[in-house]
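notes to self, project folder thing:

trying the whole complex as one job this time. last attempt i did each chain seperately and stitching them together was a nightmare. two parts in total, labels are on each line so i dont mix them up again. if this works i'll redo the older ones the same way
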Amino acid sequence: MATSNPVSVPGERTRFAAGSTTRKKKTLFRGDMLIAMVVLTPSIIAVALFIYTFIGWTFYISTVKWNSVIIDYTFVGLKNWQRLLNDDRFYTDLRNLVYYGVGFMTQCIVFGFLIAALLDQKIKGETFFRTLVIFPFAVSGIVTGVAWRWLLQPTTGINLLFAKIGLANFHPVWISDPNYGMWAVTIPAAWQFTGYVMALYLAGLRGIPQEVREAAAIDGAGTYTIYRYVIIPLLMPVTFTAIVLTGMNSIRVFDLVSAMSGSGPALATDTLAFFMFQTTFGAYRYSLGAAIGAFMMILSAFLVVPYLRSMKQEVEQ
Amino acid sequence: MSLQRLWTRGAIYLVLIAFSAFYLMPFYVMIITGLKPYVDVNVTRMWELPKGFYLGSFLEAWYKVAPNFANSMLITIPAALISSFIGSINGYIFAKWRFRGADTIFMLFLVGMFLPYQGILIPLVQTLQALKLYGTIMGLILVHCIFGIPITALLFRSYFAGVPNELLDAAKMDGCGFFGIYRWILLPISMPAFAVVLLWQFTSIWNDYLIGLVVLSSPRLAPINVAVQNIAGSYTTEWNVQMAAALIAALPTIFVYLALGKLFMRGLLAGSLKG
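result (full assembly):
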């Protein structure tokens, strides 16, 4: 795009060249461009202050001695980070993040793709099915947690259904399991988010021209082959988006866990966000809490940066 | 061939129906449990339909969360309206007045959309306290408006980018300036975009828990999701009441979603920028 031109409007330059009013119009546009910048300024300031300054501030707090209710900005270097790295809870949370991330992302992507692929088969009542699958995305993590907390109790909920179909011996304790509780949390998490991923895949599938499938079919490819070697590779950008969004979600999960199990037995369902919240607003150890928050920020950056880099091309179009 | 096709179609519908049942199951449990009196709430009879149409749990839940429901309305409606308006102006600038550096600023806005709030909570509380806005509804509205700047700008930007530049050129020829173009050309045609953005903002602000918990946790002023969590976290409340409270908290977004589901879907897709 013509970034040197203050207003990148196609055909504008020819009009400029044609008339004698060029100078007048140009100054008029420049004046409007100035207005645009002025109008945008409050938003820029708000984002610069509430996002970027706050991020820097959080990192700064993580290097001071503010670990009680009394504000104390005495510089202590990396002491809080050291304390964090020596905390067993931190490693438990990292383990839980891996469990959650793997379970949540796999379910969202596999089921999201599967449902989208099925809905793409000229299904009667597509709108109905689509609405149902996205439905949970409209309710909050707290509501989801309250409902699923009872569904995933060892003595009731899902286990009753298993018993009813003759699987009485299959009664996992779900979120109450001290080792694998986090895997159970991924079920309601995926319940809530699969619809979103499905919508992304469905839009992606609709964007693949029919000719591509037809050409593959003419070459003798069966349904499996077409999906495996044509459609899934073509949908890689969607999969990338889904990985980034679900990954981001995994790092910050808080409300769902709060409503379901809290930290769980033996910190089985504890998360970094929970740890950060309790450390900061429960124990008033602000500097340690800031270190956890900053750590979560760094983790997310690994996902955000490549994602935004891929978006940059689209934005500049 | 046709028999095989019949089998395949049947299998597809079967799988879809199974998934639908799975997605409906928690709503079903919430509704039937909310409609039972406490004596009928029993771990072994969770899936049984209520014997009658008992509204006691809903009334009790409503009695508990009604003030917070009102708070959430007072927070969500102004915040959604203001942030959508700001977003429409910002989106207009990012789409049609791309001064040097505008794209970079836009990208920097987007970063804010993705970062976890945990990285900014402590300074946020400090700042709100300094501004005397901590623990107030006004403060929470302000925070939601600011954190809504990136997503609303993104949604409006994609919408306005589709408006042909020739239309703006013509308006400029007729003497429209920055505000004139917005007021007379873009605003009248941007109702679909406003609907998407308002819907999106309404849902995400209504469903917020973390920011409400940190900024406005006093039981009297807290938003609905904080109140529901308080009820669910206390062991003295029966779970039929908990479920009823959760359902009440979900009703506005469910209603909005059912009424405007198509737009919701469009918002979802635009939100990821891959739509």
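what i see at first glance: Chain B touches chain A through 99 residues (CB under 8 Å).
need to look closer tmrw
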